[in-house]
Amino acid sequence: MSENRYGGAGQPAGASTDTWSISPWSDTHPVPSGQVLRDQSIYTQLLEMMLHLRQTMSEHFVQLMSRQGLLQEQRHTEAIREQEALLDRLLCQMINLLQSGAMSGLELQVPLPSEDSRGDVRYGQGTQLSGQPDPVSQLSDCEAAFVSRDLSNRGIDISALYQSKSQGYNAYQKDKYHKDKNTLGFINLGTSENKLCIDLMTERLLESDMNCIEEGLLQYADWRGQPFLREEVARFLTYYCRAPAPLDPENVVVLNGCCSVFSVLAMVLCDPGEAFLIPTPFYGGFAFSSRLYAKVELIPVHLESTITAINTYPFQLTVDKLEEALLEARLEGKNIRGLVLTNPQNPLGDIYSPDSLMKYLEFAKRYDLHVIIDEIYMLSVFDESITFHSVLSMKSLPDRNRTHVIWGTSKDFGISGFRFGALYTHNKEVASAVSAFSFLHSISGIAQHKLCQLLQNTEWIDKVYLPTYRFRLRKAHKYVTAKLKSLEIPFHNRSSGLYVWINLKKYLDPCTFEEEQLLYRRFLDHKLLLSCGKAYMCKEPGWFRLVFADELPRLKLGMRRFCDVLEEQKQDLRVKQLKPPASQPASCSGTP
Amino acid sequence: MFALPQKNFRAPTTCLGPTCTQDMDRSHGDDLEGECSRKLDQKLPGVGDPVMLSSDTSYLSSRGRMIKWFWDLAEEGYRTYHMDEYDEDKNPSGIINLGTSENKLCFDLLSRRLSQSDMQWVEPSLLQYPDWRGHLFLREEVAKFLTFYCKSPVPLRPENVVVLNGGASLFSALATVLCEVGEAFLIPTPYYGAITQHVCLYGNVRLAYVYLDSEVTGLDTRPFQLTVEKLETALREAYSEGVRVKGLILINPQNPLGDVYSTEELQEYLVFAKRHKLHVIVDEVYMLSVFEESVGYHSVLSLERLPDPQRTHVMWATSKDFGMSGLRFATLYTENKDVATAVASLCRYHGLSGLVQYQMAQLLRDRDWINQVYLPENHARLKAAHTYVSEELRALGIPFLSRGAGFFIWVDLRKYLPKGTFEEEMLLWRRFLDNKVLLSFGKAFECKEPGWFRFVFSDQAHRLRLGMQRVRQVLTGKSQVAEDPHPSQTQKPSDQCR
Predict the structure, then answer these.
(1) How wide is the angle at C-alpha A370 spanned by C-alphas A367 and A372, nearest 5°?
(2) Where is the composition biased (Polar residues) (chain A) (predicted)?
C-alpha cells in the first residue's frame, strides 16, 4: 500500500528525473536515449525519430544544394528542391499521423491544468507523452497546431506545450461564469489570481496622480527600467522586506512579469542542459519558463506529506534532502547551477523560518549554487501571528553574489494584467547580463509611471490596502477551510498565499495520477477549474490546489460544485468497491 | 558573405553568434571587461569565440558571459549619450542625438490625446491575466486599423493579430518559431542593424546579407536597389556555405534608406520567396511616416493577392508612426494560424499591460484625430525638418539619399575618408561624438561601403539646428583634424542604432 502511495502508477521508480530532461525536440534533436524511451509510448518514440530524420534530411539537402550551387545548374537545383519538397511533405504527413497517436495518449495522461498565474504549464507531462491511444480524445483541437510545415521543430514544441497547457484555461476563458449573463459558466479556483481587491485598486488607479504623460515615458529609456521606478522598487523592498540597509536601485532590474525575470535568470546563469534544484510540490510555471527559451532542467527535491522522524511537518524541506538530491543529480552527470525557492511557498502556503532559510542558503554556498528566491506572495501573509522574513531582511547573506530575489505586483496587488516583475541582486554582473534581455521584456513607460505611483504611496498601502486585503483573504480562507473541515478533507495552508493545498486521496481508487486526472476532469465537467498535484510535480497522487482569493458569491458557488463532484465521486467509488475485486485492490489508505 | 566567423556558429552552447561580431575586427572599448578584450586582442581579431570569454571568477554561464559582453559593447555609444544628454538649460554642451530613430516632433499632440478622459479607464479584466495574444478589443481595433491604413482589399481579421511589447520581441519570437538554431534569414543591406540582435539573443538565428551598392549599374534605376537577381545570388551563396535560409526580411519603408518598394518590386520579391519556400517578414513600422505625398507607399497587405499568404508575416508598431517608442506596442499580422499560435505561446514573456492595451485601442480607434489632427501635422513637421537638414547637406556639398519616408537621411561622407576604410568611418564617427553629436555609421547597418552615415532629423528645431551646426564644424574643420589620427581613441562604438 505504501509503495503505491509513493510510487504512483504513472511514475515508475527512478523515472522522476527523466521527465525533467530537456525536450528531445529541442535544438539538436538527439536520437532518444534508452532512458527516455522507457517512459514513452511507441508513438512518441517514432515521432522523435521522424523529427530527427526530417532534420537530418534537411541538412543533407543543404549540403547537396551547396555543391549544386557552385555548379550553377539551375535545372538541377530545381529538381533537387522538388525532391526535397516531396520528401518533406511525406515526412510531415507521417509526423502528423504519429503526433495524433501520441497526442491521444497525452490527452488521457496529461492533467489539463488550469492556467496558473505566471504560466502554469505542466512541463514534465508535455514531454512525457505516455499512455495508450484514446480514440475518444479531442483530437481535432490538438492536431491543428502541431506539425506545421511552416514552423521550426522548436516552434512546434512551443506550440504543443501551449496547447496542452491551456485547454482547461481556454475552456474557462470562453465560458466564464457571470452572475447574470452566464450562470452556468466556469468558476475558476485554479488560477492563482487575487480578485479580492479590484475595487480598491480600480479606485487607486483612477486617481489623478496616475495619469501622467511625459516625454520621457514615450521614448526609449533605460532598458533596465526607468530610474524613477527602480528607485521606488528599491525603497519599497527596503521597507517591506525590512532590509538592514537601504537597497540600491542599481541592483534592480524591472521586466514585464516575474516569469520573464525567471526565464532570463535561467538564460544567464545556466548553459543549455544545466539544471536547478527545486523542492516539490512547486509552481509549474517555473518548469515552463526554464525550458522554453533557456533549455534548463529542473531537478525535483521530493518532499513528503507524512510526518516522520525527519519530517516534523508535512512537506518539510531539509538540508539533508537537498544534499541527497544534489548528490544524486551529480552522480547522473547533471551540472546543478542553483536552487529555486518560493517563499511564501506555492502551493503549500508555507513560510520558511529565518533559521531554515539560513540553512538552505548555507547549503547553497557550500556547493557554490545560486539561489533564486521568488517572494511574489510576500505581502499576502494573512495570519497576523506569523511574520514573514524576506531573504533581504537578513543581516548578512551567506553568499550575496549568488542570491537573487524576485518580486512582482501580480499577487500582492492583484494586478497580474499589469505585467511587472523585479529582480534584486547584489551581483552587478548578473544584473547587467539580465539587462541585455530587457528590451525583449520591457514595460510601457506609462505603466512604469503608474507602478511607481502605486509603490510610492506607502500610507495608502499600509492603512487602506493591506489591512483590507488581508481581512478579505482571512475571511475567504476561513470560509473555504470550514467547508473542507466539514467534508473531512485534509488540507495544508497555514498562513499565506491565495490557495489551500488539499488532499483528495480518499476519493481516488486506486490512488494513481490517472485517477487524479479523472477527478480533475470531473471537476471540469461540473464547470469548476482546479489545479491537480501532478502539475506541481507532487510525488503523491491525490493533491489539488484550490484558490480562495475570489469574491464570496463565486467562491460559494465554486464550493457547491466542488461538494457535488465529490459526492458523485463517492457514489462511484462505492459502486466500484462492490464490484468483484480486480487484480489488485490497492487503494490509498488514511490521509496524513 | 557572412559577417560572422563560422566558428561562432559551431559552438553549440553559444547563443550569440552574429550580434556585433561584425564589429570586432578592430579595437574595443576601454570600458569592456579587461580580460575579454585583452584575450581578443591577443588572439585572432574578429573572432568572438566564446571560449575566450570564459573566466573562472564569473558568476554567469558561458552564454551569460557572451551576452553580457556583447551588450556592454553594443550599447556604448548610446550610454555615452545618456550620461551627457543635451538639455537646453541644464546641459547646453551635452550630446545631441541624431543617431536614434525616434520621432520627437509630435509630443504635444500625443500628450494632449493621451491625457483625454477616455484614456483613463480601469476594469477588472484589464488588471487580470489576459488572452496572451492581446485583449480581443485591441486585436479587433488593430485589424480595423490595418485594413484601413494598409488599404487591404478585404477586411483583416482579429484572429490573425498577435500583440506584443515591441518590434524587437516580435522579431525574436518569429525567429524562434520559424527557424532552428543556426538557420538564417536573408536581409538586404544596409538595414536596421538591431535586428541582428533581436533574432539572435533567444533564437540563435543569423542573418544572411544581400549586399546592395550605391553604384547604379546594369538594370538598376537607383542606388542600393534590391533585385531578384541579387536575392538569388545571395541565397545561392548561403547554400554554398551550408547555411539554411528560412526566410527573407524586408523593411518597407526602408531603414536607413528612407525608400519605399513599388508594388511591382514587392510582388517580385514575394514571388522569389515563394519559389524558394521562404517566409517573408515585412516590417512596416514606418508605414505612416511617408511624409512626401508624391511617394506612393504600398503596404504588402494592400496587394490583391499575396503569392504565398501562409508565409507572409507583417509587422507594425506605434514606436515610429506615433512617436511612442517607450510605449512598447507592436503587432503581428499573419494568416498562418500555426505561426500566430506559436508566437502567442511565447507572449506571456512579451506581454504588455492591460491598461496600455486599452489606451492603444482608444488611440487606434480615433480615426478623426489621426486623419485630421495627427497625421497632417506630423507629416508637415517631418517634411519641414527634412527640408532643413537636406538643405544644410546640399550647402555642404554632401550627397545623400532620402525619398520622403522615415525619420532619416542616408548621408554619403565617403569623400571625408581618404583611404575609404571602416576604420576611418569609425574615426569620423568618434570625431562627431567628441563634438557632441551622436550619429549612426554605416557599418552598424552592415553597409558594404565605408563612409555612409544615418542622420535622424525628426527632432525639435533648436536641437536639430545645434546638431547640424556641430556636424558642420566637424566636416569643415576636417582638414586640421585629419592630421590627428586619434590613436588612443579608436574606441569601438558599434550599433547604437535603434
Answers:
(1) 140
(2) 14-26
- Digit-coded pLDDT (tens) for B389-402: 999 999 999 999 98
A257 CB within 8 Å of a chain B CB: yes
- What does the alpha-carbon distance between residue A103 and residue A113 come to, in Å, rounded to a whole number? 16
B117 contact A CB<8A: no
Sort strands A543-547 and A499-503 into parallel, antiparallel or unpaired.
Answer: antiparallel
* Residue B346: Cβ within 10 Å count: 27
CATH 3.90.1150 describes domain B12-102+407-496? yes
Q: Which residues does residue B315 pair with via DSSP β-bridges, in sequence order?
A: B283, B332
Q: Which CATH class is domain A176-198+462-578?
A: alpha beta
ipTM, two decimals: 0.86
Would you call A311 exposed, middle or buried from its count of C-beta atoms within 10 A (0-12, 13-18, 19+)? middle
**In whole angstroms, what is the distance from residue B122 CA to residue A5 CA?**
48
One DSSP character per residue, A163-202 reads HHHHHHHHHHHHTB-BTTTBTTSBEE-SS----S-HHHHH
pTM above 0.90, yes or no: no
Q: Which of A213, A402, A417 sits opposite B111 (nearest CB)?
A: A213
B128 touches chain A (CB under 8 A): yes
Question: What would be the CATH architecture of the domain defined by A224-461?
Answer: 3-Layer(aba) Sandwich (3.40)
Cα–Cα distance for residue pair A424/A371, rounded to 1 Å: 12
A350/A171 Cα distance (integer angstroms)? 31
A309-367: per-residue pLDDT in tens?
Answer: 878 889 999 999 999 999 999 999 999 999 999 999 999 999 999 999 999 999 999 99
484514446: which residue's cell?
A134
> Span B121-367: which CATH code?
3.40.640.10
For a pLDDT cut of 90, what percent of chain A falls above it?
A: 60
